[in-house]
Amino acid sequence: VLLLKIRATRSCRGISLKTQELYALVFICRYLDLFYSYISLYNTVMKVTYLATAFSIVRYMRFDKVVRQTYDKEQDTFRYIFLIAPCALLALVLNHRFSPTEVLWTFSIYLEAVAILPQLVLMQRTQNIDNLTANYVALLGAYRGFYILNWIYRFATEKHYRQWIVWISGVAQTALYADFFYYYALCWKANQRLQLPA
Amino acid sequence: EDETGSKDEL
C-alpha cells in the first residue's frame, strides 16, 4: 500500500522515514534465519518480500530525486535512540537463549512493537492526512492485531505453542494503535478525512 | 531443545 502511494503520487508526504528505517532494521534482525533455516516456500517468499519492500521504500524516501523532496524532515523528529536502546537492552536481558541470533530476533520483536511511534507522532502533526497514509497505518496495525486471533487458535490446537515474548509484544504493539483506530473508525463512519487531535 | 519452538511466523 505504501509503495503504491509513493509510486503513484511520486510523494512520501506524511510518511515517517524513521519508522520505515526501523522496520528495515526489524526485518534484517529477524530474518537472519533465511541463511540457516527453511520453513516453507511461502515463509521464505514473504520474508524476502518484506525485506525488499522495506528497502525499496527507504530508497525512494532517501534517494529518489522527486520523492525525497516531499519528505518532511523537520516534522519527523522522533529520536531513534529512544526506541533502539531500550529494545536492545531488553533483548539482552529478556530472551529465550543468549545467542547472537536469538538476541537479535528478540530485539526485532521488541523494536517492531514500538516502530510505529515516529509515524504516529508525525501524523498528529499533519493537518491533512491522505487516505492512503491513513489506510496504510490501519493495515499495519491490523496485521499484528489479527495475529492475536491466530495465536489464540494455535495455543488451543498445538501442544507446544508458547511464545510469551511474541505474544506480549504483539499485544503491546496492537495497543499502541488503539487511539489511532478509534479516530480512524470515527472518521470512517462520518465519511470524513482522518484528523488526529493534537 | 529450543524452547521458542520453530519460528514459523513473520
Q: How does this model look, in words?
A:
The complex is a heterodimer of chains A (198) and B (10). Chain A is an all-alpha fold. Chain A is 68% helix and 0% strand. Chain A contains 9 helices and no strands. Chain B is mostly loops and 10 residues long. Chain B contains no helices and no strands. The model of chain B has no long low-confidence stretch (mean pLDDT 70). The A-B interface holds A 33, 37, 39-40, 43, 46-47, 50, 96-97, 102, 105, 147, 160-163, 165-166 and B 2-10.
List the main descriptive attributes of the protein structure presented here.
heterodimer, A: 198 residues, mainly alpha, globular, B: 10 residues, little secondary structure, 0% strand, rod-shaped
Beta-strand content bin of chain A: under 5%
> What is the number of E strands of chain B?
0
Judging from the principal axes of the Cα atoms, what is the shape of chain B? rod-shaped
The coarse silhouette of chain A is: globular
Q: Give helix % range of chain A.
A: 55-70%
Structural class of chain A: mainly alpha
Write the layout of secondary structure elements.
The complex is a heterodimer of chains A (198) and B (10).
Chain A: H1 2-9, H2 17-30, H3 41-63, H4 80-93, H5 100-114, H6 117-125, H7 131-157, H8 164-176, H9 178-189
Helix pairs in contact in A: 2-3, 2-5, 4-5, 5-8, 7-8
Chain B: no helix or strand
In short:
Chain A is mainly α and 198 residues long. In chain A, 68% of the residues lie in helices and 0% in strands. The model of chain A has no long low-confidence stretch (mean pLDDT 96).
